[in-house]
Structures are given as C-alpha cells and as structure tokens.
User: What shape does this take?
Amino acid sequence: MTKSADGRIGVDIGGTFTDTALELGGKLYSSKVLTTYAAPERAILDGIRLVLASAGVGPEAVRGVIHGTTLVTNALIERRGARTALVTTEGFRDVIEMRRENRFEQYDLNMVLPAPLIPRADRFTLGERMGAHGEVLKALDEAEVEALADRLKAGGYESVAVGFLHSYANGAHEKRAGEILRAAMPGVAVSLSSAVSPRMREFERFNTVCANAYVQPMVEGYLKRLAGCLAGIGLACPVFMMHSGGGLMSVEDAALFPVRLLESGPAGGAIFAARYGKAHGLDRVLSFDMGGTTAKICLIEDQRPKAADTFEVARTYRFKKGSGMPISIPVIEMVEIGAGGGSIAHVDVMRQIRVGPESAGSEPGPAAYGRGGTRPTVTDANLLLGRLDPDAFAGGSIALSVPGATDAMRDHVAAPLALPEDQAAVGICEVVDENMANAARAHAVENGRDLATYTMIAFGGGAPIHACRVGEKLGVDTVLVPPGAGVGSAIGFLATPFGYETVRSSHLRLEKAEAVALQAVVDEMKREAAAFVARGAGDTAPEFSLRAFMRYVGQGWEIPVDLPDAPFAADCAAGLRARFEAEYERLFGRVIAGQAVEIVSWSVRAATPEPEVPRAAPPPDTGPAPVAGTRRIFDAGARDFVAAKVVARAAMAPGAVAEGPAVIVEAETSTIVTSAFRAVMQTDGTLRLDRRAKVSETSSGTRAGEAV
Assistant: This one.
C-alpha cells in the first residue's frame, strides 16, 4: 500500500444513494451505495471502504475528504429539526407567517402556503428597536433578555434564532442578546440574523435565521459523529463541506452556518457540468442531474453556473415562485423537482398517471430492490422497458427483481388503467420525462433563454438513461455524458475551490456615494470572506469578485451588477451608474433616463484559484464501437420495442461510434442512445450524443463527434 497522502475523496449523500469518488495518482475510483437514513455516516464509511479497496490503498493515502449532503434540505422539507424559538423585535412576531402580500396563484381560493417553520407559540419579542440606518431608537433591556432566557430554558428549547428589525444595519442588539442567551443557556444553539444573513427585508432574513437555528443542533451532531467515524477507520485528514454557493468551507463553519449547506450536493453537480462545458468550449450548457430522488436543472453560461442570492425550499406549488420558504443565502440557481429513479407513480382520480414527488428512497426503495417496496417507481418502469440490466445495477451490488417490478406495476398502474404492464411503464417514463422537460422550459423562460441553443450535460444515476428523450422533448441537439457521470456531484466536489461569499445590505443613494466609504464597506467584507477561506485553504491567497445589487429609486427589487476588483475612483458614482444601466438595458431593453439610482446590497466572494481545465482535443475517426450483445428496449421516439446494441463504455476508444438504438453500460449508470441519436467517444472520455439530423447537416463541414 502506498504511503503518499495525495488522494482526495468526495462524498455526496443523496435521497437514495450515497456516491463516493476517490481521486488518486491521476485515476478515479468510485462507488454507489444505498443511503442509510438513520445514520447517514454509515453509508459514507461503506463507500469509502469500497473506493479504498478498489484503489488498493489504505486510509493513510487520503489527504482530504469533501462532503456534500441533502441532510439540511430534507430536514426543512420534512420538518425534522430541533425545537426552536424565535426572538424578535416587539411588533414583528408574525412576520414569518404574514409573508408578503403577493398571491403566487391569483385565482386559487384554496391556495396553500407553507406553514412557518416556527409556530407562533414558540415566537417571543423584546422591546428593542433599531432604525433603518443603524441608529438606536430604543435600547436593549438586558434584564428583559435575562428573563426571556429563563422562559426559554424552562420551555426546553434546543435552539434559538434571534432576528431583530434592521439588524443588518447595526447588529449590536442581536450580538448582546446572543451573549446573554448563550451564558444563560449553555449547550443551546443560538443563531443571529446579523451573522447568518445581514440583509434587508425581514421576511427573508427571519426565515433564513430560523432555518439555520432549526437544523443547527442536528448538523452539529452529525458532523461530530462523522468526524469520529472517519477517525475510527484511520482517516485523520481534514474534512471540508460543499456549500450552496459552489465553494468549500470548513466543518467548523458548516456547524455554525448549516443553512449554507442547502443544495450542497446539487451545487457540486453544477461545478461538475461547468468543468466539462469548459473542456469542450461550450458557453451555453443545460446541466441535467437526475438521481434516485430528485432531478436538478441548472443553466451554465460563459462556463459558470448561474448564481442567485435567494432561493425557496419546500414549494407547495410546483414551479411557482413565492409558494415556498425563502432562504436568503448565495446559491447556485437551479430548479429541482421530485423526479428520480425512486419517484413513486400512481393513478389519480382523473385516471391519469402521476409521478412523484414522493420517493421510495433507499428504504424500502423501488419494488425491484426486494427490500419491502410495493409501489411502482421510475426504476421499476425502466427495468420493465429493458433500460436496466437486473444483474448489473449499481455495479452489480443490487440485484433487481423483474417479478417484483411487474407486480407493483400491475397492481397500482396497469390494472386501474386496463393496460399491459409494459405500456404502464411507458406511461410512467413519458410522464417523468415530460415533468423534467417542463421544469427545464419553465427555468429557461424565467431567464429569457432558448434551450435549442444549449448543449445538455447529463449526469447522476438516472440522467444518462433519460437524457436523449428529454433532449428530444426540448429540441436539444447535443448531449454530453462525462466520465464518472453516475457519481458526478461527488466528482464535482473534487474540482471545487475553497470559496465563501458574504452579502451585506448597505442602502445608499448613488449621488451620495463616496469612494472612501464604499471602499471601507468592501474591504471589511473582503476580510470576512478571506477569513472563511483561510480556515480551509491556509495561506493560499484568494481571488475576489465583487457585485453590487442596484435599482432605480422607487423600484421594489434590484439587479446584480458585476464590478471590477479595484479601488473605487473619486468619481465612482458615474462609473457605477454606467455599469448599472448597461446591465439594466441588457435585461430589460431600455433604461429610465433621469431616474435616481441606489445601491441596496453588496456581495464579495473570495475563492482560491480554480484548477485549469484542459481543452478536449477532437477525436480520431475510429469506427464502430465493439458490441457486446443486444437488448430489447423501448424507444419512445419509435413508439415500440427495438433491438438495441449493448456497448461497454470502457471498451470504447476515442472516436468510437455507437449508433442508436444502443445501451452504453458502466458501473454506476447506463446511457440510452435512442434511434434519433448517435454516440461518439471523445478524447477525454466524454460521450457525445448528437441527433442524426444534426450529424447529416454538419457532415460536409465539421466531422461528426468533433468538439465544436
């Protein structure tokens, strides 16, 4: 066994599978095991043991573990958090319940809003008050805080969220209240909104600090258990966490700000897709990540995932903004729906097939797993349609039961609709593919984009199976399936720099802007972001990116404006206005002449330099890929079962071609090449799937399969 500690491990816990990737000596080793809900760390240990055994090394060869998890997201959706109290300013107890005045579904008289995370009985007030500019209007009464601490202690609360009015402008009252509460209630977690999300708009800020407090005891306990388990198998290396903004943070910071771990797994997937988009010179990429429980779709433009500063958890209406719980943190923007291999299908009262959002997960799992599941899932449907090999699923670690899938399909879908089992399976797959295509369309329309000009990058255990059909529905001509696609998010962790983004509201009319004052705000934010990065990256100097959120005076919402990382000039107001209006015109087509402009918030991101991504060279003209056999699969485009060639991905040399219909098999997933597509192996191990019509159009120019 090697003694050199140059290996790095990425671990992604999903709703169904826990994916592990080991990068060692320029080679990649991976595993996929079922997630263990009661103790997620058990699946991590199992996955790590498997990749170490595959590489033939011991734990001493590993210098770092990078971890992403859906633990926080699932806890908020399923309301499985700590008993939490909210302490806020007198008169603002019901902000998180009153929400905003807008109705996201205007004509629905029975509109259902998500219940506030913290019930009214667990919300308390104090008689302090800050002004919008940070001036003290009513001082904090420390005796009142001490009396409240006694009530909270008697109430048995495990965590406390503190969110005062205008604390983004002056957090002194929150800090002092936090000190008193921590001293009076040792062992109880205390989260301050001025530290978690120092931004204006109380509804979003209060929700964010409540979410942080709600999951903090659970996440802190989990991270401590994980560290102990890793040490128990000899892994004494540092552990870092993937956060939602697309960077790495220390375990200590993750325990303090667990709300930053929302969407950490999907963020790794977006980094993975962006890396391969860059390798193939693509500026417009649709990232399609489908796992066992959910499907995630993200737009990647100019080789960077689209970012946002607020997103929603647990929407009560699919695709409806405003129907969920807003969380105000930097995040890679994506749309996520309950469409995965474990998504359960049923027939509704209108005799229509519905799929998801409920998932069989890993416990009991799809009916084909033989672990107690009795309802049909997308995995069961794919098995009956020949798209999965029952003897080679998940690298052969799970034997799939065709009779089990058939019984579930007959009892719950086929019999109610008087259909054969295979036709019911076709209906399930078409519904889930249309759901995913609709999600992509909605996301594109919201951002004013035409997906026909994008290249899809498909990864996760389920996406390569469904990518061609979803591409057909969206009008996408090219699909890339990178190497290791089945564990793409875990591999994405290994390519992620240490990074942290800090966002702070600092309201200012542009005509009053002074270079010295602006520079002081930005420099303080730089120091804060750099300190987070240093706790993981050590002495590596970070690179900074700066963004201002600006609007015309009188508007309700602002737009992000990227700024250079350079000192502000004496006449900075004119330059800031010019950049704002250029971005405003790009988004809306025109500017508002003569209208005053204001800055609402600032964002500073510090990150270590990203690793270089070599450009993939065009493949040679190798010829047909070796065929290992044939399999009967259903091709939705042809509307019939067809004889598909079975090709081992490992046997495809660069330039090898697999004409559809074909099934390209590997340990963690399979790529279904429909009759409308052909696959060409690229020089970097990526599968490129092109529509035959596109190949015919370009055959007289660029060679089919060439990176363009």
Notes: The CA atoms of residues 218 and 296 lie 25 Å apart.
